[in-house]
Amino acid sequence: MRARRKTLAGIAIGALALTGITAVPTAYGHGYTTSPTSRAKHCANGTVQNCGNIQWEPQSTEGPKGFPSGGPADGKLCSAGIGAFDQLNDQRGGAWPTTQLNSGSFYTFNWTLTAAHATTDFKYYITKQGWNQNAPLTRSALELTPFLTVPFNGARPGFQVSHSGQLPTRSGRHMILAVWTIADTGNAFYQCSDVRF
Fold it and tell me: Which end of the chain has less neighbouring CB within 10 Å, N or C?
């Protein structure tokens, strides 16, 4: 009887160990922008309240790649089309905190990646002068040619990523949409940052 208990205990421990070894996360790449601070990161920091699930996983705004011809639907860009993160699409009457930027100057964009992934590129888009700040972000509100593209050609970035580039000429409140396109899946990560020039 004692030998049988030891055998069953051994099988149970072995099964648990095997589960730990073979468990694979369903998503391999995750990340969010820290400068300018994205809406997702503001929620995770507690700077903005009533954010829903994104406050626990700012790195998870993952949606279909191919922006701007593909990707999440208009009005759902900041949430990457994920219903559980829909609070990110709400303009909140302009109450989102902004990062102060200088028009036309050089700026360093920073990402924190919680899981690196083979990468096609990082692209940065900005709203047009005169965009509707009270409506959820749409393609018609954005300049659809990115003002900064950083190619990676399938390489894996580190866990802290920085890109420097020149900001467009703007004044007033705007939004920057940062898109991290993954090379070996059908997805990309979308981060919206509220800025003021």
Answer: N
Count of Cβ atoms closer than 10 Å to residue 31 Cβ? 29
12 Cβ contact partners less than 8 Å away, ≥ 6 residues apart: none
- Would residue 17 count as lying in a domain? no
Domain count, the chain: 1
* pLDDT tens digit sequence for 110-133: 999 998 899 999 999 999 999 999
183: domain CATH number is: 2.70.50.50
Structure tokens given for 141: 């509100």
* Domain extent at residue 83: 31-196
Kindly state the tokens that stand for 180: 């991290």
List the strands of the sheet with 160-166, edge to edge.
30-35, 106-115, 160-166
Residue position matching structure tokens 């626990």: 56
Whether residue 91 lies inside any domain: the answer is yes
- The span from the CA of 18 to the CA of 139, in Å, is 47
**pLDDT tens string 174-195:** 999 999 999 999 999 999 999 9
